Amino acid sequence: DAVRMHSTLAQVVRQTLTMAHLARLEIGAAHTWNTVWPDDISLPDRLRTLVLRDVDIRIFSKIVESARPTALAILRAFFHDNVVHSGLAASLRPLDGSKTLYELVIDGHFDRFGSGSSTRLHFPEVRRFSIGPVLDPPIGMLVRAFPSITHLRFLPRFWYKSPQPTRTIVYRQSNIAGQKEASWERLDTLQGPIRSLMASAVRARVHNLVLEFLDNISISVTRALVDEYQPSKLTFIGAAAFLTNVTTAGALNQLGQPVLG
Length: 261
Fold this sequence. Notes:
single chain; alpha/beta; eleven-stranded parallel beta sheet; 11 strands; about 30% helix
């Protein structure tokens, strides 16, 4: 019956968390673990990679809280679809100042990264950071929280519904102002949908600019973005719809030497 299944799952979870040799843990349908996750056990000390799928903010906070003593290097969290979550920054606080966390992926719809004191986070060793979608993307805040990243990706769902051009401008102006005191000097890779990149207004020298999901984007907007960053390498992903709107080979050649994916 349901009670017995719940008890069995709780035992399995507890036994799993006591495996001292465990280096990677991946949990699917993580939101169903809310009632079985033990509050008195930490993640294994040797755990390096943690992947959470279909997670909600409640169980995410519980699991991150239990990760504090570990040498966690990679954390990837894929949140519930069609739900706008809150409290992202606060849920990450147990990992604040981590000297081992190298890669962080947060894939979910959030109303904001955080507010007030909850945003005063510092992840000095994170090099690869992916986020999306945040309705109000605070790039200056991310610069302060993740000062050492080399790979930044706005996930394809960063704008779940693409904002109107006027809204993109508002976000862009806000992000430009937010980077006056601090910005990333250089990124090996900057990746995402064009509107996300335009709105984020990341102030950095970019080696590889990766443009995703180019539907309904004009050649002039794309050119403006490329001119802004002047990358050494340019990559298109999902370029088929974009190419149908390019009437001449010369127009595409103006963008440099693209790699079509």
